[in-house]
Amino acid sequence: MRSPSRAQLRGLLRTARTGHVGARALAVADSRALVRSLFLASAARAGLLDWLGDGRGLAEIAARLGVVRVERLRAWLEVGTELGELAERGGRYRVRGRRARAIAAGDGLLRAHYRSMLDYQAGPYAELAGLLRSGPGEGRSDLDVFAEDIARVSTAATPFIASYLTRPIERSRPARILDVGCGTGVYSAIAAGLDPLAEVDGVDLAEDVVETARAQLRRAALDDRVRLHAGDIRRWAPGADYDLVLLLNNVYYFPAGERVALYRRLAGLMAGRGQLIVASQTAPGSVAAAHLNFMLTCQAGAAALPRRGELEADLASAGFVLTDVASIVPTEPFLAITATRR
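^ that's the sequence the OP posted. Answer follows.
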């Protein structure tokens, strides 16, 4: 490594004299992380990483994307190379970085995470001034526009929620299970897998997400015991009594003032002393929780994470007895609660 030149040393000295040197150094590190996220987000959206494989030339990539401005494509590829997410040799570019390789290998969670950054995650911050002045009920429409990516990103909590579900399902052996806000169908499939005799109904507002989930269940040969429906649980009439109702990682989509009524509605769908399992991130308590809560509150409507203690208080107000309250995600204010109908 070459020693710094006199001009570089003088530049460093002048920088130090301007003040806030530590803050500026941190800003440089922040900028590098932001550029990496933006590069991966644009690559995931373009679907390039899983195609680069052993290497593609500039002309091949340009043809693939229908590029007119090749100089812009070259500049974008150079960003990936400088970050270490791509490697270039002999004019051919291939995937190199750990994140890029995971996306190229088909990690759906990472792909959706980065794809969501350009609009869903960054949008509320970019539009903050206007959002702060908007009227009641006004806001962004990310929950509809990016429903599939949001459903994928939410599966980051799946291993922890799945671990929690094992004990109550194996202990009570529910014959009929209702999965509210089933999304990708991941928890419907997990519940069916824990008990080979259980039948599961799932319901979700997003028709396209439900259709994708149905196809996955067919491939897993679970569609004979797991039935997914597009609809609003507040009006949907299943016509069956459920031994267990799941409300997992989605209660924050319901306005806070309507959650007690929602729990009472779910209680009315239960058989006898049915059980309800609610799992949700709460706020405040971590950067991730605060970020998610901010994005939710910027949506049209009244979505928001439950505040500390709200889940327990609302369930008690709805007539449930809490039998278990557990923090299930390390370092995060993420609760799972099992409650029994009185």
